[in-house]
Amino acid sequence: MIWKLLPISIFVLMDSLFLGSSTDSYHTIVENYAGIESFSADLDLDRTATYIGDPVDIKSDTSDNLYLVDKQWHRILKIDSSTNIVTSIAGTIGEGWLEGDGGLAQDSHLKNPNGILIAPTGELYIADTKNHRIRYVTQDGIISSIAGKEQLGVRGFTGDNGPASMAKLTGVRGITGDTNGNIFISTEYSVRRVDGVTGIITTYAGRFDQSATDDSLITDNGVPATSADLG
User: Fold this and answer.
1) How far, in Å, CA of 159 to CA of 170, rounded?
2) Where does residue 161 fall: left (phi above 0), alpha (psi -120 to 50 degrees), or beta otherwise?
3) SS3 state at 57
4) Neighbour tally for 53: CB within 10 Å
5) What is the distance between the terminal CA atoms of the chain, rounded to a whole angstrom?
6) Is 215 helix (H, G, I), strand (E, B) or coil?
7) Contact between 98 and 105 (Cβ < 8 Å)
8) 0.90 exceeded by the pTM?
């Protein structure tokens, strides 16, 4: 049998390949690992009985639990490696403008998240795309915003060399980190870096040019990364 998929995210864990598609998550090409076709908002079910709308990113923690970014339903899901039960770690069905900071992440609202980063100590960083923020979830499940200016829905490109919480971000797409605790944020046209010690944000690559067009977003090799046009 041939599966017709539109893979959006790919992740390898313990010699197994996980593909996130626009309708389900698949474990290898021939086995449905998680997700059903019929909509249901129910959680606390087995992974094969849970509806997953649009898994755009997949990560694992040190205990081999899987975390899925469900962009369509604005939430982060966790598949427990021992029980196969799916729970919501952050976000509820229904988009929202940053509701929930300072409270439980399970009760918060996200807006079309696109990526996650799991720290070695278990904290979670979320690329909250249409809120133009990086959200942070503690081990105790409390959510806050650590990058992106304190205005609802505000986007832009400001704040270099200042606190990340006061910077403007545009269309946060993804997030990763290095061994020193620094965070790298992929946005429209740029990559921003947040220092893991000071919390200061700088531009690592790319630049924000509102006058640029798709045809002009091409830069010759050999220029400084911060002068490059990233489309």
Assistant:
1) 12
2) left
3) strand
4) 19
5) 37
6) helix
7) no
8) no
